[in-house]
Design a protein that fits this description.
A hairpin with a 2-residue loop joins strand 1 (about 135-140) and strand 2 (about 140-145). The protein has about 270 residues and is α+β, with helices and mostly antiparallel strands. It has 12 helices and 6 strands. Strands 2-1-3-4-5-6 form a 6-stranded mixed β-sheet, with helices on one face.
């Protein structure tokens, strides 16, 4: 229930259910329940309340709760709080690659490229490796996997040609690439190019050219779908008139007619 409140932005209802656990049912909240509340407050932009809840949690601190706050800091661009949250995560779990990546995202969005470089160096020095993003789609009893800028698929030329056409159609429809997500200090045009070939987009386009019109496209992503691919998927679903179901590390996303079932909370 708390997770549902978090993903739909129902802050007051979430507070009510959280308080009701111990007050009405005698159920002491666990770290997972606190994690849901921190996520709920973080998504709603109530970062002061979220951090206060982490600090007052009457349980041993675990990396998950601070990681949840760190994710909220990325969404809302809170650099200082993000640094504090990342320090706590890495004190508890020095090999947590996601913490390094999210902190890099925060620095990159703020244009602090020296800090991005420092985070990358620290990852290398500590031997921490980021899990590469991978998207897969099943077509005609075969599973096809894609990574970013993937050129190994036998239909790559057709996939990239279709994607270029879709990119132009999306731009005409009002799509603006989320270049703040690119962790490289390069020109804006180059950032847009880097975003264009994420694994989700390649898998979706392969589904479009390989399945009958009108049938749903179903893609699985091993990590959380990025903001840009989420936005692009909404545009693609409307442009091509197809339903796109994307299962990422957090939840299912059902894109149809330019909207997503998650309501842009994920």
């Amino acid at each position: 229930i708390l997770s549902a409140c978090s993903h739909t932005g129902l802050v007051d209802m979430g507070y009510q259910y959280f308080a009701s656990m111990s007050k009405d049912f005698g159920i002491p909240p666990t770290a997972e329940h606190y994690g849901c509340m921190i996520d709920l407050l973080g998504r709603a932009g109530k970062l002061d309340e979220a951090e206060d809840l982490v600090n007052k949690m009457p349980l041993p601190h675990i990396a998950m709760t601070w990681m949840t706050l760190l994710g909220a800091c990325r969404v809302h661009g809170d650099v200082k709080r993000g640094e504090r949250a990342a320090k706590h995560v890495l004190d508890l779990d020095p090999q947590n690659a996601a913490a390094y990546v999210v902190l890099s995202n925060i620095y990159a969005a703020a244009g602090r490229w020296d800090e991005v470089a420092k985070v990358r160096k620290e990852m290398t020095d500590r031997g921490v490796k980021k899990e590469p993003g991978c998207s897969s789609i099943e077509v005609k009893d075969g599973v096809h996997k894609f990574i970013v800028n993937d050129r190994f698929h036998p239909q790559s030329e057709e996939i990239y040609s279709k994607l270029e056409k879709l990119n132009k159609q999306m731009e005409e429809a009002g799509y603006v690439p989320s270049t703040k997500l690119v962790l490289h200090d390069v020109e804006e045009e180059q950032k847009e190019h880097l975003l264009s070939y994420h694994s989700e987009k390649l898998a979706i386009v392969f589904g479009l050219i390989s399945t009958p019109h009108g049938t749903p496209i179903r893609v699985i992503k091993n990590l959380r779908v990025c903001e840009d691919c989420h936005t692009a998927s909404k545009f693609i679903s409307k442009i091509v008139g197809r339903e796109i179901v994307l299962r990422d590390a957090n939840r299912f996303h059902r894109f149809k007619d330019g909207l997503c079932s998650c309501g842009d909370y994920w």
